[in-house]
Amino acid sequence: MSEFKMRFVKWVFIGLALLIVGLVVVSFLLPGRAEVSRSIMIDAPAAKIFPYVNSMQETEKWSPWLARDPETKLAYSGPEAGVGNMLSWSSEHPQVGSGTQEITESIENQSVRTALDFGDMGQASASFILRPNGDQTEVTWGFHSNLGLNPMMRWMGLMMDDWVGGDYERGLGNLKALVETNG
Description:
- By secondary structure, this protein is α+β, with helices and mostly antiparallel strands.
- It has five helices and seven strands.
- α1 (3-27) crosses α4 (151-157).
């Protein structure tokens, strides 16, 4: 190989190494948390909505993900509703995956908090906040994940709203239709 080609290859490798180091350094300046939140107004009191967010079995009726893979395997444990109610799911579909979700806090007609475990993909928490507004209730569905110091996770965190936001909107739309129809 000629001296020119050797020098060129060397500079390409140096350039790639500097690019990688630069991306890693910049990742530490990115947010350490990923957060997604969507809200919807439902024409029903909080008491009519609460049972659908306080039970993993009831979320099955409006989940935006189960429509993606009807073959998803679901298993429930713990009480039928409230703290300790747990869902485990398993799917070959890459947008569904596998994991567990457990209700960790439940305040009747006000809020539900859950812990999510996606295995190798990490852990997160989710919440449902119900705020009465006249004859309606504003339902806010939130997702929070600590991204740690992993550079790749921090870059992925920038895209979380785009990846999950649409699903949250569909799910809340499904919940609204379900509650208002069965009201």
